[in-house]
Amino acid sequence: xxxxxxxxxxxxxxxxxxxxxxxxxxxxxxxxxxxxxxxxxxxxxxxxxxxxxxxxxxxxxxxxxxxxxxxxxxxxxxxxxxxxxxxxxxxxxxxxxxxxxxxxxxxxxxxxxxxxxxxxxxxxxxxxxxxxxxxxxxxxxxxxxxxxxxxxxxxxxxxxxxxxxxxxxxxxxxxxxxxxxxxxxxxxxxxxxxxxxxxxxxxxxxxxxxxxxxxxxxxxxxxxxxxxxxxxxxxxxxxxxxxxxxxxxxxxxxxxxxxxxxxxxxxxxxxxxxxxxxxxxxxxxxxxxxxxxxxxxxxxxxxxxxxxxxxxxxxxxxxxxxxxxxxxxxxxxxxxxxxxxxxxxxxxxxxxxxxxxxxxxxxxxxxxxxxxxxxxxxxxxxxxxxxxxxxxxxxxxxxxxxxxxxxxxxxxxxxxxxxxxxxxx
Length: 425
Hints:
The chain is mostly helical. It contains 18 helices and no strands. It has helices spanning 3-22, 36-60, 62-68, 73-90, 95-98, 101-118, 124-145, 171-191, 197-212, 215-231, 235-254, 256-270, 274-277, 282-294, 304-319, 337-362, 373-395, 402-418.
């Protein structure tokens, strides 16, 4: 490769690694928003540098420009997301709220494109740069949840469960962030047989998920491991994945706080209290669905759910008075990304989301002998990851959060890059 494109790709790779390592670890103690705002700021800042590097490479080198003219379906999806976000921003019911959203989506798309350009020729180390910060967060979550150590002062009025934050923010964000790295670590242990220590890393992540005491990540991880076992091509892989599935269930049952959390949910389910079972999220879900039905093509606009929630909630309360609870919180997010994407961007926006998951999951079902460990990893990980992420977005909102989206975007792009040119189907 000529020197100019090589330097261009090196700059891109350094920025991608910086995003992967810094974003999940950065925080500003004693600030108004300790966790989420610093992560957003770092991601957007570094992504803008990525965009500048991509544009500069395209302008200064014909070879670099050719690298950018990729025709893989995932590239079209990555470009369609910001384009449609711009369209629904123009038609938004609350334009002032929606204006900043296209920037975030453009940054995510640039991150995906930069990853596709830079990881194809890389090997196991390209996986470790996303797993290393996840390991730090998992270790910290474990010692926090067991009361062994709390690295910063905590308001004693905060419930004990909410003190398990890692460096991510809260237990829900933390568990969501760790789910895909856990599946990736296990797929790596399968793909690289000589690196059996990756099983230990995978177990560490499973302990971190249980420590977060958040139900959705546990269910999503169980679903991902189950799908990995079902789609495995050999008996050894099936035994290993079922073993990991059993380990996660045991960890969740043995961890004291996690066991208490599940016991309370079973109690709510037994007496049929749907709002309590869903942590009061059934109301915002129903409200988002009403918003979608009102504007199914373009939605209410990015960020419009939060701006319109209290007004639309009155209609939901009138339709479902049995869900009304004294002191029920206002919701700025639906806690269901499927419904939030539908409500805010309409059917075309949701189609883009589903297309991305479908393209990722299809990698697992390519057939033929695989000698390259990277292709084996991608095939082992892709469909379980797509299923797991689809389940995470049913009761959480990772699409709105930087910390879980960074590893999700990177691991997905890694699968596409490592299987580029793999024509066996």
